[in-house]
Amino acid sequence: MAGVNFGTQDWVDELVTKANSSDAYKKAGKNWEGDLKIIILAEEGLTDKDIIYYLDPHHGEIRSASLLETVDEKETAFTLTGPYSVWKEITSGKTDSMKAIMKGQLKVKGSMAKLMRQVKASQVMMKIMTSIETIYSDE
Q1: Which CATH number fits the domain 4-134, given the four candidates 3.40.50.300, 2.60.40.10, 3.30.1050.10, 3.40.50.720?
Q2: At what angle do helices 9-20 and 119-131 cross, to 10 degrees?
Q3: Tens digit of pLDDT per residue, the chain (139 long)?
C-alpha cells in the first residue's frame, strides 16, 4: 500500500481493519466500553479544517468508525481534542497519547478514571495507529 491520507474515511477504515484483526487489541480492549470522538484541530499551514473521527470500540472490537462533519453529530462517552501537530506526532509514533494528555496537549472530555483503566487498550490502539502508512497533508 502506498499510504493512506490522514483525515480521511480511508484512514479510519484502515485503523478499524488493523484493530479488528489484532489479537493484542482484542485482549487489551476486552473490557472497553464507551465510544469516542477524536477531534484534530486545524492549524495554519498544516491543515485547513478540523478533522473529527468517531470510533465505537467495544470489548476488543471496533464496531463502527467514521469521519464526522461536525462535533455535534454524535454524543460520545469520551472526546479527545488536540491540534493537528500533536495528533501527527501521536500517529507517527513520536509522542505517546497518555503523555500528551498528562502534558495538557490533548484535552479529555469524559471519565478520566474510566479512561485510565484502559491504558493498555489505548497503548495498543496507538501502536496500531503508528503502523498505518500515513500521508499527512502538510508533507
Answers
A1: 3.30.1050.10
A2: 120
A3: 579 999 999 999 999 999 999 999 999 999 998 999 999 999 998 888 999 999 999 999 999 999 999 999 999 999 999 999 999 999 999 998 888 988 999 999 998 888 888 888 988 998 999 999 999 988 8
Spans of all domains in the chain: 4-134
pTM of the model as a whole: 0.90
Per-residue CA distances from 98 to 44, 55, 115 (Å): 25, 18, 10
Q: By the 8 A CB rule, do 88 and 6 touch? A: yes
- Provide the 10 A C-beta neighbour count for residue 50: 17
How far does CA 30 lie from the centroid of its chain? 18
Amino acid 62 reads I
